[in-house]
Design a protein that fits this description.
The chain has 427 residues and is of the alpha/beta class. It is built from 13 helices and 17 strands. The strands form four sheets. Strands 3-2-1-4-15-16-17 form a seven-stranded mixed sheet. The protein is globular, with a radius of gyration of 21 Å. The relative contact order is 0.16. The structure holds guanine and fe (iii) ion.
Length: 427
């Protein structure tokens, strides 16, 4: 294990520089200097000759994967209730389970399982929903900080349309709790950042949204939420917020929908109207595409090809427990598969995603939300995976792009040999 943040990895290097371009360097050298990438080379430049070198010849070296949307407290009941649609599933499974995190002892029992499994898998970054509870959320953040992963974590806000056991008493109580949470975490973490997390419009009164908009301006925090996931949800938002022109407008009205000082992720965007897409584009709102969740909850298939073509920043989300697996390799394969069904069954003007495009979405596409993350260009944070793919691809038998494609579908945690997040070796 390296205990330094400056070193060299040797192996078969592969990374995206844009949705269509996959760069490969067989038997190359990847240099990490003070936690940042100093470049990927065919020959090791002289000035790096004295750095410690980890020889991973024959193994794939790719950027760490980015999960733009996942619910930590839902890890405990994934793959349950998948015969329901969104709103019934929330009522039946999600809200009762999340209520349990009021008891910090429950969080102490359950959150380590989520974090330990995340460490073993291919993701180095994640934007995470916790629950409304501050103690449990801070415990989750402590575990994540110790893990070495780089994350953004949200204490969830919800003051309507959920059971008494989970709902916050009113907007003021939810806002006070948010300020208390921000006060308690200030100065406590390096790798674990807060993100404002109004659950979705049906869970938050206008007064709460207004107050969160105020907190966002004061603290310059990023925002994450859900958008245009399911037809019944969208119709309900229109009833609850009749003055909004479309779903996304109900976040914009309160200053919670992108713009220069408010980086925002919206999960799903399966049914976004032209106006909504236009506003996301203008505001630089990131889309977290969650294909497994959209399949399991029969939500639909988001037009990701359109988002890529229009240049809307887009990444991938596992959306556990809507999705069943945290691995963003798996999500890449899911994204390709659902894009084919959409093309065949729904709209043959939007071509299916290629493996290179799915890999881009799960690395650089989502990584951009964290800054310079998700590729091996110089100055980018050094997030890397070393994968021994010989279990499913005999050494020397395939090109690097072919090996990568097979890795999306076939790799699992067994094949991951080393993992680095922001220059720190996790294993
Ligand atoms: N919309 C509001 N809450 C949730 C959630 O927990 N999961 C999903 N998939 N959608 C939501
Ligand atoms: Fe979600």
């Amino acid at each position: 294990m390296f205990d330094t943040q400056s070193f060299v990895l040797k192996g078969d290097i592969c990374f995206s520089t844009d949705p269509q371009t996959l760069k490969t360097i067989p038997d190359g050298y990847l240099v990490c200097l003070d936690g940042r990438c100093a470049g990927a080379f065919s020959q090791l430049p002289g000035q790096y000759q004295n750095l410690p070198l980890l020889d991973c010849a024959g193994k794939l070296i790719v950027p760490g994967l980015v999960d733009l949307h996942v619910h930590a407290p839902q890890y405990s009941y994934r793959a349950l209730g998948m015969d329901l649609e969104l709103l019934e599933w929330l009522e039946t499974h999600t809200f009762p389970e999340e209520s349990k995190y009021r008891d910090v002892a429950y969080a102490r029992k359950m959150y380590p399982r989520f974090v330990e499994d995340l460490v073993k898998g291919p993701n180095t970054r994640a934007c995470i929903f916790a629950t409304v509870h501050n103690d449990a959320t801070l415990h989750l953040m402590d575990l994540l900080e110790d893990s070495g992963l780089c994350t953004m974590v949200g204490k969830v806000n919800m003051d309507r349309n959920s059971p008494d056991s989970l709902r916050e008493a009113d907007a003021q109580a939810s806002l006070d709790a948010t300020r208390d949470w921000l006060g308690r975490l200030a100065g406590r973490y390096q790798r674990t950042k807060p993100i404002l997390t109004p659950r979705f419009v049906p869970s938050c009164t206008d007064e709460l949204m207004q107050g969160l908009g105020q907190i966002q301006k004061e603290y310059h925090l990023p925002v994450q939420s859900h958008l245009s996931e399911n037809p019944s949800e969208i119709a309900w938002v229109q009833e609850l917020c009749p003055q909004s022109r479309f779903y996304g407008d109900a976040y914009r009205m309160f200053g919670l929908f992108g713009g220069a000082d408010c980086p925002t992720i919206m999960a799903h965007c399966v049914y976004s109207s032209d106006e909504e897409v236009e506003l996301m584009k203008q505001q630089g709102v990131f889309i977290a595409h969650c294909p497994a969740s959209n399949t399991n909850l029969a939500s639909g298939i988001a037009p990701v090809r359109r988002y890529l073509t229009e240049g809307i920043p887009t990444g991938l989300g596992s959306d556990v427990a809507g999705g069943t697996h945290t691995s963003i390799f798996r999500t890449m394969a899911d994204a390709i598969q659902v894009s084919k069904l959409r093309w065949r069954l729904q709209d043959n003007s939007l071509a299916p995603l290629t493996a290179a495009e799915a890999f881009y979405l799960g690395t650089l596409g989502g990584g951009a939300f964290f800054g310079k993350v998700g590729t091996f260009l110089t100055e980018y944070d050094f997030d890397a995976l070393v994968i021994d793919d010989s279990r499913y691809t005999p050494q020397g038998s395939r090109s690097i792009p072919e090996r990568l494609e097979r890795t999306l579908y076939l790799s699992d945690d067994r094949d991951l040999k080393h993992k680095f997040a922001a220059g720190r070796q996790l294993f």
